[in-house]
Amino acid sequence: MFLVTGATGQIGKRIVRFLREDEQPTRAFVRLDSNYRDLEQRGAEIFIGDLTLEKDIAKACEGVRYVISAHGSGGKAQALDYRANIELIDHAKAQGVEHFVFISVLGAQRGYEDSPTFKAKREVEKYLQSSGLNYTILQPAGLASNLLPLAERFRDTGFYLIIGDPQNRTSIVSSDDVAKIAIKAATTEEAKNKTFPVGGPEILKREEIPEIFGRVFNREPLTVTVPLFLLDTVREGIGFFDPQTQKSLGTLRTLSANEFFCTEAEVNQVETTFNMKMESLESFTTRYLGT
């Protein structure tokens, strides 16, 4: 039995879909107010719970062989990115789980103090590594599925917005590939107790993304670049009346100000370990939105 948290999220729903296509018994941890009908129709066992409640985490881990932690924070980094994962690790160990797969973020180890999410992911990585559980940590770069709404807007308008330096490099990774790797990691001996940066096959400058969309949709890009100081000004203004939102924007600021890409050697390591070829952003966008 696989337990998948964040089962209705960008990566989680793909993990559940691929597991069920392979007829693997799968428990999908979902919120009551989430859209989980498709997971249920695919034959997943639906576990309705709250990741901020330890009793729900303990119950979800019963009878499980593999855990894949794929949930996000929803703006609650301490409660969900950190505490929920710590308790998930503890209860997985207590239940004798064979392998724990944690989906972290590329650059978690860099010490970005402005991002609660990055800090939480790094602390969970360290806790998992010292837990005694067999584990695999995946550190994906930017997810291609997160760009689909921007691609749809580009398709309709040709407009694309960049916050920060358009020369900054990235390795946009197929969300389907991340899901497949997470599943394989649970049973791949070469992945045991290792950390893998996971990126797409190309190192792209951010200004190249609208050019890719332009090829997919056959239209000229209208790219607008917003300098970081404008984001900083907005954050500062928000901080006067909503300090929590100001903090949550720290992750956006971190992502906008820095480069997140995988080297050719890192991509080759993933492809070799998991016996697969990584999909390009152009291919992913064409599959989902191309005509």
UniProtKB/TrEMBL annotation:
Residues 6-187 form the NAD(P)-binding domain. Keywords: Photosynthesis, Photosystem II. SUPFAM superfamilies: NAD(P)-binding Rossmann-fold domains. Gene3D superfamilies: NAD(P)-binding Rossmann-like Domain. One of its GO terms (cellular component) is photosystem II. Pfam families: NAD_binding_10. InterPro entries: HCF244-like, NAD(P)-bd_dom, NAD(P)-bd_dom_sf. The keyword Protein biosynthesis does not apply. GO terms for biological process: photosynthesis. This is SDR family oxidoreductase. It comes from Euhalothece natronophila Z-M001.
